[in-house]
Amino acid sequence: MTRELMQLVVDGIVEHSAEVRTLALVPAGGDLPGYVPGSNLPVEWRTGRFNSYSLTGDGFEPAAYTISVRRQPDGDGGSLWMHQLRVGQTIRARQPVSEFPPVWSARRHLLLAGGIGVTPIVSHARSHARWNHDFEVHYVARDHVLAAELAAAAGDKLHLHGSRSDFATTLTDLLVRQPVGTHLYVCGPESMIDAVREAALAACWPSTRVHSEPFAVTLAPGEPFTVRTSRSGRRVQVAPDETVLSALDAAGLSVRSQCRRGFCGECLTGVVSGDVIHRDDYLEAADRDAGEQMLICVSRARGELVLDL
Amino acid sequence: MTASESESESESETRMNVLADDEYENSRIEDFPFPLEKASIEPRVDVEPALAPRSTAAGTWGGRALLVNHNYERCVRIRSRILDRDPVRFTSLPHMLPAQWDAMLFLMRRLGSEYPDDFALTRRADGWLWTNRRLGLEREFAFGDLSSLGMEPLEYIGRQVQEDLLLLDHRSARLYVDTVLVTFSMGWSPTFVVGMNFHEVHGTVPRVMDDGTVDRSERFLSTMPIGELYRRNPWAFQIGGRLDRSKDAFPEWTPKADAYLADPRLDTVGTDVRMRSELSHFVRLPLTGAVLYTISVQSISLEQIASVPEWSASSMRVIKEVPDDLVHHKGFHVYGPLVLPYLERSS
Ligand code: FES
């Protein structure tokens, strides 16, 4: 899974307020890959540490990746780092990850944004505008930092709300008057997502038409740990974004593998000892509990793992 | 020439015709994706990352995702003829238009990078220029503008690749086959599966429904990282080189195949019977996340298999060891009695 990181240069910065800035990132060389609307960009803000930010373009042939970042003084430091970047600096990022895509077959799209959660909604709105889809946007915030961007895509289909209580009265009405086949997308604070889900349920919306959370299981990086091979007596470090398989490979210990995604079972390996975190889609629950085997292309461990190799 | 000789001559001519309509030529063993290097016949998640070259007892294959070989012109000609005659072989639900554009660009880019002498996709000020030197085509088009292609994007590119193409859309936690451009399928009806979900499509393959393989395959396909190519290599035996073996065309070819099987020519079995590989690639497309599934058909004759002792041995082993419930699915009840004696004789 360790794909090469992209080198991106900060090409432009717009300060919307003391809290929110938008960065335009261009490739240090070559073309930027396109992306599915609603994708996010994992940016490396400290070696091996990534924070993901929603891309706000429609994903087609991007000349630049644009992300908007809210300063979070009590966060892990990633947003503060993003806020001290200056034009011309080079940063590193992974390929965009799609975890909040539009449903292409929907008859209509109802987009609800709260606060800085507006960023993927801008991306969706731009894509719907490109494809002439039927859609409507509601943007709830004290200061509507990306209102201009949204208005450019949505025109009179954009509705601004100054507060959540203000929006609450609109919401119920909005939910009941949507035609069958409408899909709803909400991005914002968790409390807003919960409130929208509840209201949708009360208005008899099928839960499969309400989208808020990532649906895809991605191979997120994990904590680093050590692997020891009991037969060949080797000791290998597995970095956060490596897998056991790739780490062994790099150390010159080759193990049979095929899909490298935890589906086929080819890399099944005996566990001598260790606290395994299973992440495959192959083993039965009972096998996992037994803890005697693992799929080393995806699964990880805490502390030291001893493998029968 | 005696009377009986000329009679057998014309008889063999009809046989030749049986084998010649819509045919494509055999592959070379040097780059044939021989599917039985790891001899296992169980339907399971048999996927691997694509583009890694694989060596076989006779050569290597797999460095590219798309096939453009000596059959290229012939394949696109046959496909165009089928599409003209039977337009529903390309069927796409309306919401798949963005995914079609996505797929077309993806295929054009790959063709350009895998066969730079033959194909090129070039950025123009307000659109693109597509060049296909094999067919002598040049086309300027604007993304999203149907009139600049003259037809829907998947059909446009589908008429210029050897592969059959399918697009799968992910919704309500299921994958749906919402677009097909399939003219060379083997015993299934592409037009019948449009709009079906992954489970419904696989309803006829023994075992896979019960043991969760379909579920796992579906999860695999719908969670592939965007842009990463994977492949699998299903295969079967067939008589002759006819490409279109779909259910839609059964009346055209099954009687001839049945007639052959009822009275096989033991002296020509080695060239009449072929192993057909349906090397398939799949990728989640970068702009829509839809899954593009491509199938390229290639074959080699029993004679060619017999020329590689390792291939001959693993083919025989697979036929002999196939579990009972899969014998019919793989067609071994029909082909086993033709293939086994031939390979045994020539090994
Ligand atoms: S390589 Fe397929 S499960 Fe690990």
UniProtKB/TrEMBL annotation, chain A:
Which cofactors is this protein said to need? FAD
Q: Which keywords does UniProt give here? A: 2Fe-2S, Flavoprotein, Iron, Iron-sulfur, Metal-binding, Oxidoreductase
Keyword Cytoplasm included in the entry's annotation: no
- InterPro entries recorded: 2Fe-2S_ferredoxin-like_sf, 2Fe-2S_ferredoxin-type, Beta-grasp_dom_sf, DmmA-like_N, FAD-bd_FR_type, FNR_nucleotide-bd, MRET, Riboflavin_synthase-like_b-brl
Where does the record place the 2Fe-2S ferredoxin-type domain?
223-309
Give GO terms: molecular function aspect only.
2 iron, 2 sulfur cluster binding; metal ion binding; oxidoreductase activity
- Short name of one Pfam family: DmmA-like_N
Give residue ranges for domain FAD-binding FR-type.
3-103
The protein here is known as Oxidoreductase
The opening ranks of the lineage are:
Bacteria, Bacillati, Actinomycetota, Actinomycetes, Kitasatosporales
